[in-house]
Amino acid sequence: MTGPVEAIARAVRQGEVRAVEVLAEHLGRIARTEPDVHAFNLVTSDVAGRQAEEVDRAVAEGRDPGPLAGVPVALKDLLCTRGVPTTCSSRVLEGWVPPYDATVVTRLAEAGAVFVGKTNMDEFAMGSSTEHSAFGPTRNPHDLSRVPGGSSGGSAAAVAAGFAAASLGSDTGGSIRQPAALCGVVGAKPTYGLVSRYGLVAFASSLDQIGPFALTVADAAMVLDVISGHDERDSTSLPGAQPSASSRLGRGVAGLRVGVIAELVGADGMAPDVAARVEEAAAALSAAGARVEPVSVPSVRYGLSAYYMIAPAEASSNLARYDGVRYGLRKPGADITEMYTATRSAGFGAEVKRRVMLGTYALSAGYYDAYYGKAQRVRTLIIRDFEDAYRSYDVLLSPTAPTTAFELGAKTADPLTMYLNDVCTIPSNLAGHPAVSVPFGRGTDGLPIGVQVLAPALGEPVMFQVAEALEAAAPTGGAA
């Protein structure tokens, strides 16, 4: 049995199908198609088999197997998994096996999920195409000549290809939402602090968040509800009970106020077919009873520049630990300095080196205020402009990515062109706000297009409420 999370979990819980049968069907699909897609760095069939057997045992004994009973889930390969290699798609973590699970991994397991594998990604989550992986690129299941987006491209592709009913990715500047758009699935970045980052290998600690990919909006909300909540092991985790992402599903959008962000619809490089789908999405919400208007959020146009100062600076700090001493790859040298240099030169790929050097420069004496400090001030402006917009609107609407999936190799030689893929997603990370990408028709090339719903902090319930309405109104078939 394949399909949506809710359907699989319900069938397993009611004894209509066994978890091991669900797993066998997904593993069969992986065996047939994964060599072409390369969504996984590691398929964990043994781990999944044990988990599926435990779910079936619980059902047979009348015990509650959990809300995700028997649901095959894929994990981005920067989430620590006890006893299973975690590579971040980098040679520098060669041979490292975590001694503990990330909090989200524990929560999924307790909910009855079955882990089918660790997914490929841009190295240390730095990229927008999943081409910057030490283990080769992932391909888009809709067109194997195209990228799946990144950095969580393997997680998006795993769901799009039917290898898993849901998956987890991480989103630092759009790394869940952009690949979700390119692969035609739902992908959500939660409010910063709603989901624990304990056990997430850090890229940029003030921006990183873990979130779900799924086939439907309801499934994404369901998985988010399982993994969210306070964790005392994460100092940035929000305290207290938080609203359920699923709590407003089924209510429609009548009376809600929706602002369409003018600066993002008209961003440089925005493809006409993508802009057209956003206009259609706005019209659909209006027809469903929402009040829809254009809105200006002026400072979002500076988000890309601010992000590429802040994120590399934090990466420079976080990646300093990969020195060949404590874990992972070690290259010999005549002294410790030479060993550090040899290890990091051999272990890191070109994009990681580029960002570490950029971040180190931005933090260096004499340049901190001019670059990093100024970028943080821009971040504050973005937060304030969003606050102004949310005084008048319940949610905001924009494109998710400026184009449909591009061809493999088309942008790897020009980093600036690659970075522009995140122009619509980065502002939410800088503000710490939630956002979700919903499939909404196809482009003139027949490939999926995603529309993004943005909400204020802890606005997940209304965000998913609007996303569900878009899902119901989405065009089907080819280009509209």
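the 2nd protein, sequnce then structure:
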Amino acid sequence: MIILDGKKVSNDIKVEISEHVKAIVSKGEKVPHLAAILVGSDGASMTYVNAKVKACELIGFKSTLIELPEYTTEDELLKKIHELNSNSDIDGFIVQLPLPKQIDEQKVLMAVDPKKDVDGFHPTNVGKMALDLPTFLPATPYGIIELLERYQIETSGKNVVVMGRSHIVGRPMSILMSQKRKAGDATVTVVHSRSKNLIEITKSADIIVAAIGISEFLTGDMVKDDVVIIDVGITRVPDATKKNGYRLAGDVHFESVSQKASYITPVPGGVGPMTIAMLLKNTLLARERHA
């Protein structure tokens, strides 16, 4: 069993991007600039955004963090988005999700200029992705594709089961894996809360992408030998033995599934770091398109 080390691969990608940035600087050109909007003080969101800002500093990007209070109105947030859309110094920006309940997430995502949508969530970019046209790929599915490619995992003709149908991971993942690409050409099945004969489906899978948000849902008795496991989930599970009172768990029961898997991503340290690396890659792409 081989661990798919997202932390190592993401660091490799950051080194590659930083070399690119050094070349840009040596020519006296503008370095990429990523902005992030954070509304409220959700702990997980703050940690994630701070990791993005730190990654920008590490590779030589400029970064701007815009922190807005929890009570920010939808109109105030939309005004801030329009400001970033028209700011030529900003190459790409993200609006950290989830947003407070008084704000319509869909309305916010629609307001982001598709040319600066480095999260790849705007319908224009989702449509281009579905049609296999050049665009920003959603960062998490993009990171998974990159991980599969760099570990040279064969996907052509394989049975891939994607667990979950979210717009952020499940649905784009199913599209990308079915396309003609290095980590693609697969036969893809999407399962969700209404799927019947779930174990029968997961046991036939050569590759499983688990993104359903239920901690340790996929267990060893649900998979076949030599399966490749990509665990997208991350949940805080109470654990009295830990100093902080919890441990981080994925959607996969690592202990039982890893005994059968040929490759598996850990949680943490698997898909998470890859998401940030691909966000940086998208920002570099945005800067090149604006140049």
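The chain has two domains: 28-113, 139-272. The longest helix spans residues 6-26.
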